[in-house]
Amino acid sequence: MKRFINSEKAPKAIGPYSQAVETNGTLYISGQIPVDVTTGKFVEGGVREQAEQVMKNIGYILEEAGYSFKDVVKSTCLLSDMSGFAVMNEVYGEYYKEDCPARAAFAVKGLPMGALVEIETIAVK
């Protein structure tokens, strides 16, 4: 059985996908970009500010689904340029201080709406 998760605190999907889907005790969170739902726009600033908003959005979805950052087992971090990796990594490390999830990070040619950072997440209960 699938349960579809939609947090009002996180940005709505901008295409034919769900914010997150839970099945068999596993939560799959779609890639989050740095949209602040209070403005409907990207947060101002660079990689640091965008990474912070992305992690907040992930947190809102985890919370809505009844999970926490401690339940995260895998992240995939996408950056528009690897020169932002160290800054993104610093922000990411504020959320995962011990027993960190498995992770991959890639530079990609482009991200939705021109984002600098996008992160998808898998959590397990």
**What global shape is seen?**
globular
The number of distinct helices, counting runs of at least 4 residues, comes to 2
Give the helices and strands as they follow along the chain: EEEEEHEHEE
**Spatial order of strands in the largest sheet:** 1-2-3-8-6-7
Indicate the radius of gyration in whole angstroms.
13 Å
Number of strands: 8
Low-confidence stretches: none
Alpha carbon gap, first and last residue = 15 Å
Proportion of residues in β-strands: 25-35%
**Biggest sheet architecture:** 6 strands, mixed
Roughly what percent helix? 10-25%
What does this molecule look like?
The mean pLDDT is 96. The chain has helices at 47-65, 85-95, and strands spanning 2-5, 20-23, 26-32, 35-36, 41-42, 72-79, 102-107, 117-124. 24% of the residues lie in helices and 33% in strands.
Summarize the entry for a quick read.
With 125 residues, the chain is an alpha+beta fold.
Write the layout of secondary structure elements.
Elements: E1 2-5, E2 20-23, E3 26-32, E4 35-36, E5 41-42, H1 47-65, E6 72-79, H2 85-95, E7 102-107, E8 117-124
Parallel strand pairs: 6-7
Antiparallel strand pairs: 1-2, 2-3, 3-8, 4-5, 6-8
